[in-house]
């Protein structure tokens, strides 16, 4: 078999795997955990908001290395990426506007999965030689399930998978910059590598300080620009909402550049976009949350719920409304270039400035993703081989940015999704096996005089 034939086979297997099989695993796990945890995300939304965004400027309770807000922004640095800008229009072009409805549905279901991961990360975290709190799937697999081999499997798979991931991020930023300002990719790669090094080699606390400044700025900058377009199209808004809801439940016929979609495709694209974007079940975000200062695992779990709200319900939705209200998705040739639709829509309303807005947002999104990917990879090396190995891997990841920028090892990219499955499947199994503990911790939090009941009492005193 030729190399091209082999790669095509790998790509076909990867597309199949990330279709019905993995989406089913994540949806069923999310629904099971939502029921097990008694629909907490639907029952306590105001309380969760007050405990998270409402307490950003308060001194956090408990022990940890980062503030809860820094842990959230570190997580969001990784989940908010190019996919929020280019992945959403692809879901609309291949699944129709109804895909956005199913993206919202899976966001709410995924909250219980992400909450459970973060609760377990705090429950089983440790302190390393530097006195920093570390945790994540490899720790709850080892200590919670007594399956050190599974923790080693997860760590090794993630550590190796992040090398091609960094290459892809390097390539993405270099090609974006080249398209806009024609700077040769090698220079962009080197500059990106230097910026990432300055942040990452300063340790987790510097990463936290940088992300808590960069993430709110980049989210407000991008969502604010998208909101301007929505206000310009305010009369289209009811029509867009109606289009999203009605096409979620009926096959969408072809119009303009859109080729039509069956309901099964609409659901698949919506679920896929939501799950890939917020990384529920992947096991990466609990590594960031494990370092947070908190007095109870459940309190930090709420912050991971807010991560889905910001990433999927706010940023992905903003992109969707721009693409749908501007009508660019029905233009001829739209299906041939779905990743460019957001830029086309912004350019339509802001001229050349519009393309710069999208480019700047993409650069920030990708740079911040790279910072946290290096941190995640280093934590795997630390778990497996100790702190010195973590330093070595940081250097490897930074070098991968430059290699990716010049287009090296594109052959590896076909294997990326398969490597991600090798991380996701053991993590979801571990979370399900430990779901009884998550349920017990959640019940303890909501029935104890030290946590939920005390918070409610304090709130009554303030308002009363």
From TrEMBL:
Pfam family, one: Na_Ala_symp
Compartment(s) of residence: Cell membrane
Alphabetical UniProt keywords: Cell membrane, Membrane, Symport, Transmembrane, Transmembrane helix, Transport
Record InterPro entries: Na/Ala_symport (IPR001463)
Membrane-spanning parts: 16-40, 76-95, 101-124, 145-163, 183-201, 213-234, 240-264, 302-324, 356-378, 390-412, 418-435
UniProt keyword Transmembrane, yes or no: yes
Topology in membrane: Multi-pass membrane protein
Family the UniProt entry places it in: Belongs to the alanine or glycine:cation symporter (AGCS) (TC 2.A.25) family.
Name under which the protein is recorded: Transporter YflA
Protein source organism: Siminovitchia fordii
Upper classification of the organism: Bacteria, Bacillati, Bacillota, Bacilli, Bacillales
Gene symbol of the encoding locus: yflA
């Amino acid at each position: 078999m030729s190399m091209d034939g082999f790669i095509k086979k790998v790509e076909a297997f990867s597309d199949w795997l990330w279709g019905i099989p993995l989406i089913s695993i994540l949806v069923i796990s999310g629904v099971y955990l939502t029921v097990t945890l008694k629909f907490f995300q639907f029952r306590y939304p105001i309380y969760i908001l007050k405990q998270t965004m409402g307490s950003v400027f308060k001194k956090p309770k408990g022990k940890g290395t980062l503030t809860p807000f820094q842990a959230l922004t570190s997580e969001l640095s990784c989940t908010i990426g190019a996919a929020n800008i280019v992945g959403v229009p692809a879901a609309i072009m291949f699944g129709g506007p109804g895909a956005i409805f199913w993206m919202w549905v899976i966001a709410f279901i995924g909250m219980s999965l992400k909450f459970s991961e973060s609760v377990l990360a705090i429950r089983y975290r440790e302190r390393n030689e530097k006195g920093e709190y570390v945790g994540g799937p490899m720790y709850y697999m080892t200590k919670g399930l007594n399956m050190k081999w599974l923790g080693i499997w997860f760590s090794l798979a993630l550590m190796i998978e992040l090398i091609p991931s960094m290459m892809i991020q390097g390539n993405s930023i270099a090609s974006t910059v080249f398209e806009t300002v024609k700077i040769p990719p090698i220079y962009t790669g080197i500059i990106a590598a230097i910026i990432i090094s300055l942040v990452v080699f300063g340790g987790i606390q510097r990463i936290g300080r940088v992300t808590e400044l960069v993430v709110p700025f980049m989210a407000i900058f991008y969502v604010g620009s998208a909101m301007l377009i929505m206000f310009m199209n305010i009369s289209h808004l009811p029509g867009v909402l109606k289009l999203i809801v009605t096409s979620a439940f009926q096959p969408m016929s072809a119009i303009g550049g859109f080729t039509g979609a069956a309901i099964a495709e609409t659901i698949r694209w919506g679920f896929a976009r939501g799950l890939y974007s917020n990384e529920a079940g992947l096991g990466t975000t609990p590594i960031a949350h494990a370092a947070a200062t908190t007095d109870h695992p459940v309190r930090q779990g709420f912050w991971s719920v807010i991560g889905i709200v910001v990433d999927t319900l706010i940023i992905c939705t903003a992109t969707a409304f721009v693409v749908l209200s501007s009508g660019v998705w029905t233009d001829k040739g739209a299906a041939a270039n779905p990743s460019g639709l957001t830029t086309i829509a912004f350019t339509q309303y802001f001229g050349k400035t519009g393309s710069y807005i999208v480019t700047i947002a993409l650069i920030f999104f990708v740079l911040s993703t790279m910072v946290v990917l290096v941190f995640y990879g280093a934590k795997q090396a630390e778990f497996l081989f100790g702190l010195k190995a973590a330093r070595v891997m940081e250097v490897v990841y930074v070098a991968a940015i430059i290699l990716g920028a010049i287009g090296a090892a594109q052959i590896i990219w076909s294997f990326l999704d398969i490597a991600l499955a090798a991380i996701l499947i053991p993590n979801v199994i571990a979370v399900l096996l430990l779901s009884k503990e998550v349920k017990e911790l959640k019940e303890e939090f909501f029935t104890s005089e030290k946590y939920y009941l005390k918070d409610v009492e304090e709130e009554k005193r303030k308002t009363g």
